[in-house]
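If it is no trouble, might I ask you for a protein's amino acid sequence along with its backbone structure tokens?
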Amino acid sequence: MSRLRFHLFLCVLLLIAAAPALEAAIKGTGLPLPRYVSLRAGEVNLRTGPGVQYPVDWVYLRRNLPMEIIAEYGTWRKVRDWQGTQGWVHQSMVSGLRTLIVTGKTRTVRHKADAQSKPIATLEAGVIGKLISCPDLNGWCRVDVAGKKGWLRRVDFWGVLKNEIME
């Protein structure tokens, strides 16, 4: 019986020693949620749960597609896309690069943050661009789409939180 107690005692010690590492693995990054990221690769599996043992529900084939992280579990991120689809991806498949996807109909990138400003580019729905800044809540963000930099209204794309100010 004393040998069994000794083994139980060792197991308890191991669990106590491993607790901080386990807690950190479950907790995730500690960064604010929700937050936006983009897909790092041109092919990313969206899984039904946080691990490779969960089935692939969807495969994304667009690098730099913006995603909203809504939860974390260890090295896994629960994400939502612009159409509301949710699932889990590994942290290595997302990047901190901020991007946007044009929604709705044809949208116009402007020279200044003003609807009367000179147009720089016309964008179709589904076009992906880089989000440079959203300096205030005036409704406009600075963007870069295929090397053309200008201003696009927040309501014309998905990839920024409603009240987010981004420098």
